[in-house]
Amino acid sequence: MALIEVRDLKKTYGIGSVDIPALRGVSFAIEPGEFVAIMGPSGSGKSTLMNILGCLDRPSGGKYLLDGADASRLSDPARAAVRNRKIGFVFQSFNLLPRASALKNTLLPMMYSFERKDVKLARQILSSIGLGDRLHHTPMQLSGGEQQRVAIARALVNDPPVIFGDEPTGNLDTATGVEIMSIFQRLNEQGKTIVIVTHEADIAAHARRVLRFRDGLLESDSQQ
Ligand code: ADP
Question: Domain 4-223, what architecture?
C-alpha cells in the first residue's frame, strides 16, 4: 500500500471574486521508504501541494490518502492529530520557538499529543544529529545549520513515517545545505520516507525520484 496517494488533487484560492487555480488535478503515489524531491518554477504549486500533504491545508477537490486514511475529509482536530502522529515537517525558516532551548523545541510535538514527554529520547535524537552539546542553547545561540538540525529533531520526536521539507536548505549556505541533506539521506537509509521541495538541482540530486510541477500540474515523474 502506498504511504501517500493523491488522486486528481485540486486547490483553488479565492481572492475576492477571482479564483486562482494553484493545483489543477494532480495524481501520484509515494511508497514507504522513498526519497522524493519536488521541483518546479516559482508559482507552480509546490508549496500548496506540501501544505496539503503536510495536513496544514485542505484540498478543494480530489483525494489525499495518507497511510490508507482519507486525509482530505478530516475535521480540523482530526487533521491535527494525523499531522502529529504521521508527519514531521521541516520549514525553510526553521520555525523554532525563539525563547525555548533546543531540547524544549524538540519536545514540542509531544506536548501536543498524548505521548508522555520523553526527555531521554529527545536528548538521544539531538545527540544523533550532532547537537548533544547544544541541548540548552536557544535558537539565537545556534547557527542556521544547527537550528535546522533542531527542527529535524523536532520532526523526528514522534517517530512519524514521513518527513516533509519545504525548501529545508533554502536559508543555508551550500556546505551547510549539503550537511542537512546528508542527515535526510541517513534518515531515509534508516527507513523514513522523505519528501522535499527544492529548486536547487544539487539538493534534488540526493533524492531518488523527482516530481516536476508546472502551472499546477505534474509535468514529469522520474527516477534518478
Ligand atoms: P510555488 O510553491 O511553486 O512557488 P505556490 O503553491 O506558492 O507555488 O503557488 C501556486 C499559485 O497559487 C501561485 O499562482 C500563487 O500566487 C497562488 N497562491 C499560493 N498561495 C496563495 C494564497 N494563500 N492565496 C492566493 N493565492 C495563492
Answer: 3-Layer(aba) Sandwich (3.40)
